[in-house]
Amino acid sequence: MKLALFAAIPTLLSVVEPAQSRAPGSQPPIDHSFAESLDVSLVELDVLVRGADGAPIRGLRARDFRVLENGIERPIGGFSERSAAGLEAADQGESTLAGSDFLDADLTTLVVFLDHAALRPDRRSRVLSSLERYLRKRDRGLLARSTRLALVSNDLPLDVQIPLTHDVEEFLDRLSRLPDPPASSARASLDRAQASERIGGGQGPSGSPTDLLDEVCNNARLRVLSVFYEYVAGVERRNARTLGGLDALFTILGGIPGRKTVLYVGEGLELQPGVEMAQRVANTCPDLQGEMLSVTGSIAGDLRALAANANAYRVTVYSFDAAGARADELLEPQLRQLRAANLQDSLNLLSRMTGGRLFRNIGDLRPALEQLQEDFAHSYSLAYVPADATEGALREVRVELVAPGSARARIVHRRAIRTVGVTDRLVAGLLSALWMGEQDNPLGIQVAATGPRLSGTLGVAIRAPYSALVLEDVQGESGESRKVRLFLMGRAAERGSVTRPREMIEAVTERELVRARATGFFEFHVDMDLEPGRWDVAVGVRDELTSRVSIVLVPSVDIGGNATKEISMILCGSRTARRSLREAAPHRRAP
Length: 591
Fold this sequence. Notes:
The protein is of the alpha+beta class. It is built from 16 helices and 25 strands. The strands form six sheets. The chain has a six-stranded mixed β-sheet with strand order 8-7-6-9-10-11, sandwiched between helices. β3 (65-69) and β4 form a beta hairpin. α7 (187-200) packs antiparallel against α9 (221-253) and α12 (300-312) runs parallel beside α13. The radius of gyration is 27 Å and the shape is globular. The two termini are 36 Å apart.
């Protein structure tokens, strides 16, 4: 019996306390209108409004705003101001949309992202020292009181070095014990210096443009182009590493409710890879410039797609250029300005499109944190139902002020937003659990590892309270009744790779319903064949009628033996619905 299974393995049982439940043997009343409202794909906007003097404008109401989607006005269905006055207004009912993380507008998550693909160790140390001094201030205001903090880097490709925490002291303690950055963090500066020397035929990285390119125009054309192409390829690899890490982080944060902010810390991404190096060559040999620029390309399109993903999951990006004024870079003023613009323009584009801002030409992080804290304290949250909720659809959004005297006000908000479907949100929830430990269990499900087995198979048992799922007297569109969605994902703790997300929508039969009514639980069993190693597994259950979702973690387990790369499922124990879900590539690096 399934219940005996749980009693036999108390050390592997992970029980999350259920929410308040009804009496045993009873099910909640069915309210179809409530279920439909939960599946509406809302667009949520965090909006900053500043006057001509730069000061925040406070006290605005929903009627003072207008939202345009692809040029067409949409009604505002939810509104709140992030301040004491705004929270009081929300308490009085001005926030009208239920079933959304819009109601968590006062909850903020701040993640510091260290770009180890382009962050010199000395600049990294300076930034972290500034962060520590800021957080040790006696009065840290809103940032310390209502914000969860985390710190990640783009290693493995994503390394959560400090997990989410409300406790600033815990964050500081972990910050003081961070490991040294990888050697690759200094690669960008070293590659540039070495490319310059190879082009000029020098012996060491002097960095001075006057001793380069002695024989370029006549005798070293092929050598210069070869070195330049190699340099551009290295820049593109570093750009891809940073973009991939950020994209994974945005998706992971999509499973966390409320407003999310990522503070990028690095020296930027080259918007046009190699453009500054091409200009250095062109200063001596103009005939080569066109050929070099033809291979530089641009990552502007990648940044727009990245921003759309961030916006879909309500993530705002603030960027801090850790290089400061770059006074320590031995370049001619014109080349230094070109290099800074090429690196900063990418950060400015990403920040601006997600409703954030870029902090540049300052070496101290504290002024940026002060400004970020002010933005947290004085902002508005708006929500509306889009005209077209097609999954993956991209929409251009513009927010305008219609309040009297607001003509000179400056509004900052997300611009391009992609529609996220149910499956994408479920996957984001699994990733949030695996990477950030974020769990939510409104259904009160219980999960347990029933292995591991030497063959490499991990069994996962799932129990969902009968009183939590709305399955009585429900008829589906296809004639099948009582549907429940199961989904799961595993993460290799040491490698950081994850399995492909899998989900099943199963119809519960009358016989299974009778069994659950008698025992008080619906019971499921999942077998996962995984590669050897230590694994974390996230399990989710979604009630298809009410759209309520529980996501919980199975405690870390060691897997041994050979994996067949198969996932099979057995539903409810009374009938076997074994389905082989063989995957061509069951493991991948990034979430």
